[in-house]
Specification:
Among the domains are: 2-88, no CATH class; 332-484, Glutaredoxin (3-Layer(aba) Sandwich), CATH 3.40.30.10. 60% of the residues lie in helices and 8% in strands. The protein has helices at residues 2-16, 22-28, 30-35, 38-51, 58-70, 74-87, 92-103, 109-122, 132-148, 152-159, 165-181, 185-203, 212-218, 221-235, 238-251, 256-269, 273-285, 292-303, 309-328, 370-374, 376-385, 406-417, 437-440, 469-484, and strands at 332-336, 341-344, 349-351, 359-365, 392-398, 423-425, 448-452, 457-463. Helix 9 runs antiparallel to helix 10 (152-159) and helix 15 (238-251) packs antiparallel against helix 16 (256-269). Keywords: Signal. This is TlpA disulfide reductase family protein. Residues 1-18 form the signal peptide.
Amino acid sequence: MKKNLLALLTLTVSLSYAQQKQPDLFQRYRPILEKGTLAQKDSLANVLFSNAKNFKTEEEYRSTINILRALANEDKMEALSSIAKKKYPKGSLTRDAYITDVFYNAEGSAAKEKAYREVTKKWPVKNFPEQELTYDYLLANLAGTLAKEGKSTEAVTYLGQMQERFWRGNGYLPVGQTLLAAGDTTAAAPLLKTAMDDAYYYISLPEAEKDNKARFASMGYASSMSSYVGILVNRGSYAEALDLIEKAMTVAPAQADGLATVYYKSLMGTGRKLEAYNVLTKLYAKGQFNVEDDLKQLYAELNGSMRGYERFNATLKQELVESIQKHIKEMETYKVAPSFELLNLKGEKVSLASLKGKVVVLDFWATWCQPCIRSFPGMQAAQAEYKDDADVQFLFINTWERDKEYKKNVVSFIEKHNYPFEVLYDDQKDPQTGQVMAGKFGVQGIPAKFIIDAEGNIRYFLTGSTPNVDYIKLEMKELIEAAKKPYKAPSAS
């Protein structure tokens, strides 16, 4: 039966491959990519690799390499990449390999500048129409490195060469924030204003004109607005800041949360204290406890004293807890967690079976995943809260790394940030499916967190992240404490 299935698959692939575009190929082989056995995946990889001898274009190589990557067949992926690079030395595959291997691994601005010049010399942008974004990525990365080294003039010069307006805010914003953190407001302000103005342009387009590029550019509005308005607030230009914020609230009400901090400060600065107090109260009730000093100040000014503050504060926190409890109901599940035995940074084996009797928090992450990293301070705080609880174990599962030197990079990342995490490498493939553990858990995007109870059952599953440390602490506490309790099946409505 298996031989017949593989023979049929081989024939099907051979007959139809040349006519299929990449999205069609992915769609055609999706069942095998997602649920196929290891034997089926290996057979598909063999067929695709064999068909490469008939390829006439670089795009055919790229499409097949991407499918081999999805099949996690690194040997054939690298072999085919090597063939393609020799066949198309001035093509995009060779260029992209150089960018990955040389440019992104270069340390320091001098090495990155040298690599960038090499890219633009061997693979000039004019030879790759509609691929300007690839070069914008390099410019933004190089500018970011220069900014971290305090070379603001050079950083701004490279940013000025970016061509894709919808994406340039992703280069301008982090560089502006880096310069701002270093105290270089003069260089930071125009970058942040450009990022803000670009995002505003896209967010204010008529709905019928908003394509995916416009929607992507719009997402950065709150961040760029907050950073730029923060400069105005620090300068005492509260009225100007308030005008910009209220304009933003009109065209992008969904971004109100991201602007709340600069909004209440601007309201305070212009004497609109009651409105500022209302914004502050909402912020605090969402777990932004770092605003408490300002909340106390306004409470005393508006009420004439601090009488009743503690009760008021406790009420806000209780409302937050109740909101989290309601929210985590949406994350509830109940199924046996896949077993695993993975290596930690010291090379020691850690298995789920060895942790039976404990509540286990799994956090799937990667060094390239900014949302993952953004939540780490909060996860560190949550772990610290349970450091004396022998019945709770946090495990940070490093997965989907893209670099061959990922183990070295992971160790370097953890040591650099001094995170006291138990990190496991998710690189042990299932002999039947070829999946790593993330796949066995059904992870389709990271960060992804699972709360497993003492009996080895997944009780909660959540995705996404927030930089709000206090909120993460409270959310994790509710999840962990709920998982400690016996499972109760939802009552029939």
